[in-house]
Design brief:
The protein has three helices and three strands. By secondary structure, the chain is α+β, with helices and mostly antiparallel strands. Strands 1-3-2 form a three-stranded antiparallel beta sheet. The longest helix has 12 residues, at 4-15. The protein is globular, with a radius of gyration of 13 Å. The chain starts with a helix and ends with a strand.
């Protein structure tokens, strides 16, 4: 069975970036920031960018988008 961390690793390798919403919808991951923390401790270089978009009510909503820069050992 593939772990949620492995699913996020594969997503980052294949897509290059992920948001919390992507993680929830696609993999049932609700603690993406923890997985990113673990990957960074393994040497992965992951950049965090704040993205602002309108929500369904027209209000600004800011969230993190994690972008893979390089994979460590």
């Amino acid at each position: 069975m593939e772990t949620k961390q492995k699913k996020i690793e594969e997503h980052l390798k294949n897509v290059g970036s992920i948001t919390s919403w992507d993680a929830i919808l696609n993999y049932g991951v609700t603690r993406l920031s923890h997985i990113i923390y673990v990957l960074r401790n393994k040497g992965w270089i992951i950049e965090t960018n704040n993205v602002t978009e309108k929500d369904r009510n027209g209000n600004n909503s800011t969230f993190a988008k994690y972008e893979l820069k390089s994979i460590g050992s």
